[in-house]
Structures are given as structure tokens and as C-alpha cells.
Amino acid sequence: MNQYWKLFVKGMAMGAADVVPGVSGGTLAFILGVYERLLSALASVNIAAIKLLLSGQIKLAWRHIDGTFLLCLFGGILVSIFSLTNIITYMLQHQPVPLWAFFNGLILASLPILIRNVTWNWQRGLWFVVGTIIATCITLLTPMQSDPTPWMFFGAGFIAICAMILPGISGSFLLLIMGMYIPITTAVSNLNISLLLLFALGCFSGLMAFSRLLKWALQRAQNAMLAFLSGIVLGALYRIWPWQINDQLVSPASYAEAFGSAQLLLAAVAFALGIGALLLLRLLEKKP
User: Fold this and answer.
1) Average pLDDT in the 123-132 region?
2) At what angle do helices 2-19 and 264-286 cross, to 10 degrees?
3) 144-157 pLDDT, tens per residue?
4) For residue 64, what are the CA distances in angstroms to 33, 40, 45, 274?
5) In this predicted structure, what is the pLDDT of residue 288?
6) Cβ atoms of residues 103 and 272 within 8 Å
7) First and final C-alpha spacing in the chain
8) For the residues of 89-131, what is the DSSP string, one character each?
9) 236, 24 in Cβ contact below 8 A?
10) In this predicted model, what pLDDT tens digit does every residue of 42-95 receive, in sequence order?
11) Contact between residue 214 and residue 39 where contact means Cβ atoms under 8 Å apart
């Protein structure tokens, strides 16, 4: 039971990250040591699992897909998304500096953990640089405006979920770029079931396809892939710099000129809380 609660809490941390444009739930999965197990569990939802289910071997099918792990993790993600969407949306609108500072602390504190898992050579260092450049370029894209049709919710789910399980690339930020972030958070807040089902169907389809691709890459070149993913995490930090005006990064002094205060003390406290949150989650991972 203790292990189940740990997985649920990790899922909640991933869900909270997924709500924020600029932060990836995949980053939290990577940091918390459940990333490869998550990819394996998702990839095991296949023809063999369906055959077991159709033949009435429900328990074997459940074990085949690591069902308890997925249930606990995705239960935490969903609870976090539905309970925190309004709070985080409010923070993004009214208190963005401490929110971004919190995630800066959390992700910066995680980088040494990610980097030490790689056996480094010049080729893996190159993959690290490539990952950093790709993530930085993605964060420089300009958000679009759109008037979405219902089936755009399916497409948005398919694309965003691929980023949500890729460390460093934020699914929420891709939704923002596609002009779908506000329509989807509004659908969550209003419990628009039909639109949410289309979005969920897109997410499921994307998960099934992309998890297999990532698992294949990790099996064939684990160290290079881990170096690449670590670079993506570093490059994504550009997007979550605490002081931004109209999505443009500015200095604390320029921010203070525009808004009257740079909230330096609040940002420092939130940064420290981000580091503390990571240490707490890591302690949760190590505690027997």
C-alpha cells in the first residue's frame, strides 16, 4: 500500500507540472525514477494484452500491462489536473514570478541527478548539446490564436501528450502554441465531457504510438538518449524564466519598472521551495 501511495503522489507531481505551460510531466517522471517503467507499461498495451483480455484472463492482462502501476500514476495525474487547474491558472495570471521560480528550483535541482545517470563521452556530450538547442528553439515559438473545432481537441491531445511524456518539452506549452491551451483548460473547468473525451482519445492514441518510439530508442542507445533528454530539460529552462513580459524574457529590474516590483524575495522563497519539493520527492523514492 505504501508503494501505491508513492506512485499516486508522483502522479500528482506529474499532473501539476503538466498543467503549467513550460514544464513537462515527463521531466518529473524522469527525475522520480518512473520514466522507463512508464514507457514499458504503456508499450505493453498491445495485441497480446487484448488477446488475454478477450480470453477472460483479466488478471494476466492486468499484470501484462503493469496495471496497478498505471492506475496509481494516472490516478494521481488526473486528480492533480482537475484539482489544480484553476489554482495554477490563477497563479499564471496573477502571480507568475513565484510560480516560474518554484519550477526553476525544482528542475535546476534535478539536473545533477539526471546528468550523473549518463556515462559520458564526446558523442553523448554532442547529443546533450543537440537536445538543449532543440528545446530552446521550441520555447521560442510564438503562441497562435485559434477558434477550435471539436476534432482539433483530438489532434491537440495527440500532439501534446507526446511532449508530456518527453522530459523537458511541455505539453501545455505546445497547447499554448497551437492556441488550444485556454479552450482545453476551459473544458476542464466546465467539465465539458464531449470535448474532454475527444482530447482524451487523442492523448491515448499519442501515448500508444510515442511511448513505443521512446522505449525503442532507450533500448538501443540508452546513454545517448538519456544525454539527449537531459539536454532537453536544460534547454526548456529558457521558457520558465520567472520575469517575463508578454512572453518576452526580461531582467528583474525591467520587470520592476513595468509592474512596480520584481518580487525578488517571493521568487527566492519559491525557488527554495522548488528545491525542497524535489528533495522531498527523492526522499519519498528512497524511503523503504
Assistant:
1) 91
2) 150
3) 656 778 888 898 88
4) 20, 10, 8, 36
5) 47
6) no
7) 12
8) HHHHHH-HHHHHHHHHHHHHHHHHHHHTTS---HHHHHHHHHH
9) yes
10) 888 888 888 888 898 999 999 999 999 999 999 998 898 888 878 877 887 888
11) yes
